[in-house]
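User: For my dataset I need records formatted as: sequence, then structure tokens, nothing else. Please produce one.
Assistant:
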Amino acid sequence: MSNSAQPAGRLAPLNSGSPQNEVTLGVIYALLAYSVWGLMPLYWRTVSWVPAEQIVAHRVVWSVLVLALLLAWFGRFNDLRRVLGDFKLLRWLVVSAALISLNWLVFIWAVSNEQLLQASLGYFINPLLNIVLGVALLQERLRPWQWVAVGLAALGVLWQVVALGTIPWVSLLLAFSFGFYGLIRKVAPVDGLLGLSAETLLLAPVAVVFLLWADPQGAVMLSQGSGGVVLLAQAGLITALPLLWFANAARRLRYATLGFFQYLAPTGHLLLGLWFGEVFTLMHGLSFGLIWLALFIYTVDMTRAYPR
């Protein structure tokens, strides 16, 4: 998108600096987002007295409040109104909102049900899925070693199905929901703050109605006293800020390049899962090993192609 002045009534340009500065900003945003996501299971375990579906609803409600403050701070309410009035764009944001809410629900369920290792596998798969999506939908081209990496990742998933006798549905749901979410947020002509604000506003009525139905007296939220309410309220910051950073990173970096930074979050999940005492067998190790080998091959190949 051009950085030239835009006519009145259109959204402000997404990129305002030199290409090199934009890439640097993208790297910073990606590091912030994935570092916080890697440690996020620690937070979800502290609010584990709340059912997973109610936590998702609280994430939406509190995120609306946090994003409203950010919109006020940056003076962007008029821009948000233009986004909400663009029905073609809004259709895409409805889809991205549905995808991210599904991703939240599956991940929180995984943390609460000792499936964090499966969640980490999903996010290890996600960078390689991004490669496939970039080729299939964004006309990005891959070199031979990158295809080898994709094949090894697929073999790693297939190994779990055959050796463990189960489909890693947690891993696959997380990988595909976030992969398509990131794809939509990359190509949608809206910046991180406005896109995320529109998504949460679209989800907010559903979240509020669900909370009124599931916990009409607020008994679950109030069961831990005022400290519990404050803890739940922090879901707004923990939700909004990393997603905002991710959306800004996706606008500035090649979609496949995001795969490099995505190693941070699942590594954190894996280490936390082991710390929490989840079972990690040799069969799991072989599956993870194939995917780690795929990530190593892809990273080396990308580093050689783009040494800077």
